[in-house]
Amino acid sequence: MPRVTDLVEVGLSPLQAKHLGAQPINGDFNNLSATGNASQVNAYQIEANYNIFGTVGASTNSAKLPKAESDPHGVYFILNSGANALNLYPAVNNSFNDLAVNTAISIPVNGGVILVKQNITSWQSHHTSGATSFDPAIYVPYTGATANLNLGANSITASNFSGSSSGTNTGNQTITLTSDVTGTGTGSFATTIANNAVTLAKQADMATSSLVYRKTAGTGDPEINTLATLKTDLGLTGTNSGDVTLAGAPTYLTLAGQVITRALINLTSHVTGILPVANGGTGLSDATIDFGTYTPTRTNVTNIAASTIYSAQYMRVGTVVTVSGKVDIDPTSASVTSELGLSLPIASNFTSEEQAGGTGSAIVTTENAGISADAVNNRVSFRFFTTGVANAAWFYTYTYRIL
Length: 403
Known about the structure:
By secondary structure, the chain is mostly beta strands. The protein has helices at about 5-10, 15-20, 225-235, and strands spanning about 30-35, 45, 50-55, 60-65, 75-80, 85-90, 95, 105, 110-115, 120-130, 175, 180-185, 190-195, 210, 225, 255, 260, 290-295, 300, 305-310, 310-315, 320-330, 335-340, 355-360, 365-375, 380-385, 390-400.
């Protein structure tokens, strides 16, 4: 094993020297002689992990490390005490730092280097300018088959590392992103931006009086356009600035500020003429209330030998008329449907029988009649089924619509 005093002499701290002093050494490590020329093939094969080269006879003299894959130590200390710079090669198909494979590094006179196994094909080096200042900043032995340690151009020092570290790095570690951007994986992995995480402040700047909508045909990225472009796209022309002016009389709407107020329509002063029934009106100048008497014109339609009509009374409210009266009827035959037609006190243009309806009753014979609209003759039809041929007095009432 190397002596602690030798290790301190080349620049290790007492703690580092004490730790390395416990490492076994394979073969002689002191006063080695570099051989061969500047090639891997003839270079001196290093076996011990602590080496001092006392003889470097020419600048072409060289040495080389074992293969990283099968190396038992994980760290090497090499000091050049010779008269010339020492070329140090990796094993075939190995490399130092970020250099190409099989490329040597140069250790100057009285210079030293610590080599730490980075993975199974490469080494990380730390150089010092002279034996008295050989102060490696870190000793990290390699213990895994595929572990990875990359210190870059500089070693870890108190200026760029703080805190503590534990555990074993087994390669790419799983990274999990949370909050506004989420994702998990090793190396490169897909991420997702959370809903509502991108604020307006994080979007691209926009010019004044512009808005976002896509003008170009087809699906694609959003576009920023001006208000003038929007007016053209919407077919708005002229100098319309958005203001609305209400004019005319009477005033049904008033506009004050940003508030539109409606005014009630006065049916007396605002409406003129007659509103037709087809438009929701009554067809009359006002809601007419009328009443009176009249003598209906009778028509003996079916199975009636004779009839006597009496004065009838009516009452009208708007377009609805109610009529009541008396008529004597002398049927021709018994057990036959009979029909009598009666004219209206106020004319109406019927289109269907349900536009008038009522009943009649013969008190003596206890017969009943039904009254409906006669759309062909614009009168009412008085129909009943005879039980005999005797003359009978009938009393009736019906209501109809003025159409």
